[in-house]
Amino acid sequence: MRTDPPVPLPAPRLDVPAELVSFIEGLPEPHILFDRQYRIVAANAAYRSAFAPRGTVIGRTCYEVSHHFSVPCDQAGESCPLALSRRSGQRERVLHLHHTPQGEAYVNIELVPLRDAQGEQAFFIEKMEALPLARAQPARQGLIGSAPAFRDMLGLVARVAPSEASVLLLGESGTGKELVARAVHEASARANKPWVVVDCASLPESLFESELFGHEKGAFTGAHMAHVGLVEAASGGTLFLDEVGDIPLPMQVKLLRLLESGTYRRVGSTELRHADVRLVSATHRDLAAMVAQGRFREDLYYRLSTFPIALPPLRERLGDLSLLAHALLERLTPGRPLSLDAGAVQQLARHPFPGNVRELRNVLERAVLLTDGDHITAETVDRALSVGLLRRPSPLAGAATAAAEAPSPAPTGASLRQTEAQALRAALQAHHGSREALAAALGISVRTLYRKLRALDENGEGGPTPG
Asked: Is this entry keyworded ATP-binding (predicted)?
């Protein structure tokens, strides 16, 4: 079979100022220089070492080298800093997933346009900075993922981490808020200073102030010696308030004073102390609703949420499920080589995971204990899911109970069927997962669910059918 030879790329421009090439060569971070056709015309030693140790990149396009794309990034579903810069006329920053000799890695990109004598964008300098806080391949620690929702979240983390802004992490339980908070700390200038976690949900109101701000000897019964609070312990570093929605209202005023003035007092002391801490907080609660209900101070809410970041639930990043599962399996069994069959991954993908990544870890840990060989099968995953299934009240049972307890006369057989059909239709409309998950939520077997769905269809009462 005859194939045409590849069309060579045009030669790089020869009028690149030598001073410009010399300038980027002396920079310690990886830098490349490319023209308006995306062709790399210069790359410094730091770039060559990190991204192209075994070949040249001169004359190749930046999107082919970095992503193995055949078209520019913005035509392949990625954010393209050059396209953004052409529209804005200024420097642009994006987070990209780059191919490197060690595999895919997250890289912060900063692009600066260079203009010619006519004021037109002639060249572009691109600075690349590795972002080690997350990976797109299985790893023993850190954040893992490459789904669009995960990457959007990671881009916000990369932007805010180097600043001193207060960060509020919002998300369902089990989405990894403490991991993200730790990533904010490790990507900041305070990375080598203390990292202190305050579990607000576990501290009783009577001890909250003492634990947070400390107390003096004799401040209260049982205070036999002075106690250093968590704010003082975090001096110079990051203070992470986990489940900040559980902070008692009286303490919210004192926390607000700390945020606004940077000062606090130990319990039993009049001495004003100064705190140098960066605050990161997290909650699974709807703080805005709590403010409306008078359960959370509005002024504190705005102080905490200088830079809010929403963490995506697992159902919004199903493309990461296989990656997460294999990474968690490595962490759970460091000395035992275990793999997941394709059917096992598919079985996991059919589960809604209301407990998110924490629930996924628990399911995999049960599957490991239920496996004697080297492979975790779909049947084992099904058993692990069934063992840990949280049984919720069945909408069908609830409707039947409500009908039985109603003050009206006892319903006939027809009205009972109608009540059950109505409850089943409501459950179908609210459910977006698999038939197995719906049956589990209703507290019935899959076979019973199929029989009831078939009865709905035969009676002309059918609704949306779960996939």
From this structure: yes
